[in-house]
## 1
Amino acid sequence: MSHNQCIGVLTSGGDCPGLNAVIRGVVTSAEQLGYDCVGFLRGYEGLVDPVCYIPLNKKNTSGILNQGGTILGSTNKGRFAATVGVQDRVNIKPELLEGVATTMRQLNIAGLICIGGDGSLAVAQQFHEFGIPVIGVPKTIDNDLSATAFTFGFDSAVACATDALDRLRTTAESHQRVMVLEVMGRHAGWIALYSGIAGGADVILIPEIPWTFDHVCDTILDRDQEGKRFTLIVVAEGAELPDGDIVVQEGAKEGCGQVRLGGISALVAREIERRLRRDTRTAVLGHLQRGGPPTTFDRVLATQFGAHAVRMVCEGRFGEMVCYDPPDINCVPIMQAVNRLSQVERDSSAVQAARALGISFGDCPTQNSPFRRTVFVGAARFEEALAEEASQDATAAESFAQCETLVDEALAT
Ligand code: F6P
């Protein structure tokens, strides 16, 4: 059965593992329902002036399930860059929107499936408001989109960062060094948190939890005392320094006008070396986190997203986005996803589990913990908690002093 209607698909913004799996999911399920498919090239750019697309079918999307990147190309720059900063939108020019609507009519496109992160979905939202039939599919390694439990690409990035930690552990241990691994994630600490837990990090520094060098150094010294003379630190690129600064790559702007984050690991390492005179090294994972084959989880999630997006076209659910609502795949208005960044909750179970394992977030150990929250329930408990905290501080100061002596002695020999 063919009703000659077509489904359009495009990948926009930074790439991530699983994009091709979505494309394959879209094309295969669309063909089964009798739709033709076209893929627009280089994100939204391919939609207009000049219109650039390729027909997609089961044959030319076969074998791409496990391929990283995107066969359609992508960009986070250009005429359709809709985000300047968090919740700071730029309006797409009306003549461009008009051009896209014309392309849709000329190619007889029943629905346009836009696979992208928050900036790209903000464009999709503007298309929807202009009357262009769009469906959103959330992708990003950062996992910072609201309204979906996970985005595809995240699990693959975490796997990459976890593998890096496994590797850094052995060399850190051999040389009794502090290792600082810098991971991506923009203003969300998901990659750092999950890889830190999975890779057995000792310290995790994320944008959502304010931290200090004193506490980071205390953790290193505590480990020394335990006889573990190496420390693994994971720092999210968007973590704020204790003075509130965010570290950006000098002179660099992201394509859509956002600053390009990066470089915090070097500052963290330098300060640790200055304070403790400990051999400290850094590793910046960068775009390794975005490349390579998707993990099993991402392949399954991406495939389900693709198939569900086609179903949504059939049902006319335009202006909505596929989402993962475990264990189901569902849909929500795109607006819900782009309204607010999804960040790590300070008292989430993942953070609590990490703390329970002794992982430091570079903050006061009792701050943000469940114990801290009970502090305010009653005055008696409050006093008790303060006393507990003071005694912990005294022990920390004592162990710090002992360790300093040990370090000095070791350096002198
Ligand atoms: O949003 C995905 C992401 O990889 C961020 O984690 C990172 O800050 C940014 O994109 C890097 O962008 P670019 O590929 O433009 O360097």
## 2
Amino acid sequence: TTAKPPRIIRQLPAHLVNQIAAGEVIERPASVVKELLENSIDAGSTRIELSLEGGGVELIRISDDGCGMTAEQLPLAVTSHATSKLPDDESLFHVGTLGFRGEALASIASVSQMTIRSRAEGEEGGCQIDIRGGVIETPGPCGCPVGTVIEVRNLFFNTPVRRKFLKTPQTERGHIVEAFTRLALANPKVHFVLRNGDKEMFDLLPTPRWADRIESFFGTEISEGLIPIENQDETVQITGYACDPSVSRGNNRMQYLFLNGRHIRDRALQHALGEAYRGMLMVGRHPVCFLRMRMPADMIDVNVHPAKLEVRFTDSGRVYSRLLQTLRQRFLSTDMTQRVGSNP
Ligand code: ADP
Ligand code: MG
């Protein structure tokens, strides 16, 4: 009996599309930090400095010495689905960078007040752009060294519901430190600095020794119990460290797995770790590991999760058993009380 008039379908304006997209990847300040750090790493930076105010809600500032952007490219950086990382359509199937979706900057810019200053090599000077809630203000020239500085202020200022879900600055800062830790662990040759207010939390000098970077985060308790792992077959390479069972944790958060330079969480691989240590740990204890895996990009799909935390393997059974075997063999040939703190 009630009338059913046809609905009006409307094409959403870009800033709204970006806000919706932001809902998928930008959950909290730590997600901003992850995306910005990844961009700086993809830009080939050797030094990356991160500063926070108010747990990152008031301000996240990141500066790098990477390749920078030219004045004409800069507005494209904050346009959605615009990326320099897929030079042709085929490259989606062998992604070699941390980013490729071309959405992060547009998403972040749509829910914050963002300023980017950047200068590419060979350019006379730098360029600047200000974006407020996704609206670009006229770009202009500015003085700056080669590289990029991005400031993100007042995250979620225009999405009050999302802002309400934020926890205390200390909690948000904790999530940021975790995101920072993952990326700094994955890139020991990059110099990272993290500043919170006027306090310097980390100054991590570049190092060729992964154990050094691990030690600067977790101290000698962990670094002295590291058992080097190295194994390679035709397709899968596994290197890094498993920790002596005398160091364990009540949860599995100290299991750092990196796949082709990207930090991942993977249920099956965590299970493999648990199996490898079976009988060596008390019930309820979890091993501590830092493992880097490499395999051909066409054996993994990173495009299943917007934040790329989860990946899909074309042959997950094989990856599982490789990891399990590698650790088991190592443990068999190791006096588990041996300490290897000074191994490369
Ligand atoms: P994606 O990383 O998926 O390409 P983003 O939205 O994160 O998408 O970034 C868009 C583009 O902006 C990148 O492809 C890159 O060309 C450029 N860009 C972003 N951050 C930096 C940076 N720190 N240095 C140089 N270029 C950058
Ligand atoms: Mg990116």
